[in-house]
Amino acid sequence: AMEFVSDRDTKRPLDPAKVLGVVNHAARNGVLMIRCGLYSNGIRFLFPLVITEEQLHEGMDVVEGAIAAA
Questions:
Q1: What mean pLDDT comes out for the span 46-60?
Q2: CA 30 → CA 13, 34, 50, 52, distances in Å?
Q3: What is the DSSP string of 4-42?
Q4: CA separation for the pair 8, 57 (Å, rounded)
Q5: Residue 11 CB partners (closer than 8 Å, separation 6+)
Q6: What does the DSSP 8-state code read for residue 50?
Q7: Which band of pLDDT confidence, cut at 50, 70 and 90, is reported for residue 3?
Q8: Element (H, E) at 3
Q9: Are strands 5-7 and 12-13 parallel, antiparallel or unpaired?
Q10: Quick check: 47 pLDDT over 90?
Q11: What percent of the chain has pLDDT over 70?
Q12: Which of 2, 3, 24, 26 is deepest in the core (most CB within 10 A)?
């Protein structure tokens, strides 16, 4: 899982709508994850147990692009 905050010092949670944008962007590009956390400011990865290292890197590239797009 990964938690998003809008300020590293205060740890104020990021707007859940932005986190949902990350989840939706990733889903449109083949990576499934769900929001999590008390403030819905986290994402939980749902990678299969049989994922190859190549597939893992490909998926993380998608996640990186989703975060950058948000």
A1: 93
A2: 26, 13, 16, 15
A3: -EEETTTTEEPPHHHHHHHHHHHHHTT--EEEESTTS-E
A4: 26
A5: 5
A6: T
A7: very high
A8: strand 2-3
A9: antiparallel
A10: no
A11: 100
A12: 26
- Is the C-alpha dihedral spanning 33, 25, 20, 60 positive or negative? positive
Is 1 exposed, middle or buried (CB count within 10 Å of its CB: 0-12, 13-18, 19+)?
Answer: exposed
User: In this structure, are residues 44 and 37 in contact, taking their beta carbons and an 8 Å threshold?
Assistant: no
Say whether 65 sits in a helix, a strand or coil.
helix
Contact 42, 30 (CB under 8 A): no
Mean pLDDT to the nearest integer, 14-35: 95
Q: Residue 70: which pLDDT band, with cuts at 50, 70 and 90?
A: confident
Torsional class of 52: left (φ above 0), alpha (ψ -120 to 50), beta (otherwise): beta
